[in-house]
Amino acid sequence: MKAKDEEIQQLTQNIRKLKTNLDTAQDEVIQLKNHVAAQLDANMAKETSATNKAATNQQQHRNDTQSKPKVLFLGTSNIKAINEAKLTTAATVEMVVKYSLKETVAYVTSHEDIPDLGCTALVNK
Question: Could you tell me the residue range of the domain that residue 22 belongs to?
Fold first, then answer.
């Protein structure tokens, strides 16, 4: 009976460690996303200030749309809940869900529209 209690305590302790590691990893992913978004926003602000201020609003909008960097965001099903429109307005984000590293490599090597930046959020077991 004592051995079972010790095993339960050990498993409980392992679960706590794994949860802490998972929380840390998720925090790092969020920090990386925020960092990329901040860099893209800063770059976009520099480009916007350098554009000709005499352009009309319609031309400005057209230029902004064309000059936005393209970001390819690859991940597993855990990225489905992310709204790419809310990540940043400084880039055009294309989100693609792939379930394995093999699928991801196949997609990236056959993808014709080359992005300016690529981000991955893959979980391997």
Answer: 2-121
The answer to whether 122 touches 101, Cβ cutoff 8 Å, is yes
- The letter for the amino acid at 41 is D
Number of domains observed in the structure of the chain: 1
pLDDT by 10-residue block (mean), the chain, 125 residues: 90 94 89 84 68 51 64 78 77 81 81 74 62
Contact 101, 124 (CB under 8 A): yes
Compute the distance between CA of residue 72 and CA of residue 61 in angstroms, rounded to an integer.
22
Local structure of residue 17 (DSSP, 8 states): H
Mapping DSSP onto H, E and C, the string for 53-93 reads CCCCHHHHHHHHHHHCCEEEEEECHHHCCCCHHHHCCCCEE
Q: Give this prediction's pTM.
A: 0.42
Beta bridge partners of 56: none
Backbone angles phi, psi at 91, to 5 degrees: -145, 160
